Amino acid sequence: MLIKNAKAFINGEFHENTDIVISEGKVAAIGQGLMVEGSETIDLKGDLLLPGFVDVHIHAFMGQDTMNGEEAVRHMSRELKKFGVAAFLPTTMLSLIHISEPTRQAEISYAVFCLKKKKTH
Questions:
Q1: What confidence tens digit (pLDDT) does each residue in 70-120 have?
Q2: Dihedral sign from CA coordinates of 39, 44, 49, 53
Q3: Residue 106: what pLDDT?
Q4: Measured distance CA(30)–CA(81) in Å, rounded
Q5: For 21, which of 6, 29, 53, 77 could close a Cys bridge (C-beta 3.0–4.6 Å)?
Q6: What is the dihedral of CA 111, 116, 120, 121, to 10 degrees?
Q7: Are 76 and 88 in contact (CB under 8 A)?
């Protein structure tokens, strides 16, 4: 595949009129005026060509939530790549149901103790 006339973001800078050759799923060449015989060509006409993004904090996407387990996270992965996300950090939320009952009671008791103490001073 040949991508022509891109405004490509490479190594932290934008480069106008950039051509990129993709071969076997990898970037094979970057330059200007590149030609590939018999290959699919996409002319971006100056549109942006950006690397895959990394989402470092995501709880849910497309009706799936990371708290719903592995299959939900795999579904999110398949859908996110359609939007240019190359990698993501599935972020979960702390749920009180996952904390044991004695721990919850101790934390609640301590919080109540602190509030009562604050009122008496």
A1: 999 999 999 998 888 999 999 887 655 555 555 545 555 555 556 666 665
A2: negative
A3: 52
A4: 23
A5: 29
A6: 10
A7: yes
Half-sphere exposure at residue 105, Cβ-oriented, CA atoms within 13 angstroms = 3
Distance CA 49, CA 4 (A): 10
| ∠ CA 32-18-12, rounded to 5° | 130
Neighbouring residues of 8: CB distance < 8 A, sequence distance ≥ 6: 14, 15, 18, 20, 30, 48, 49
Long-range contacts of 84-88 (CB under 8 A, 24+ apart): 84/50, 84/52, 84/53, 85/52, 85/53, 85/54, 85/55, 86/51, 86/52, 86/53, 86/54, 87/52, 87/54, 87/55, 88/54, 88/55, 88/56, 88/58
The pTM assigned to this predicted structure is: 0.54
DSSP-derived pairing of the beta strands 41-43 and 85-90: unpaired
pLDDT digit string (tens) for 59-69?
999 999 998 99
Report d(CA 40, CA 50) in Å as an integer.
19
pLDDT band at 34 (very low <50, low <70, confident <90, very high): very high
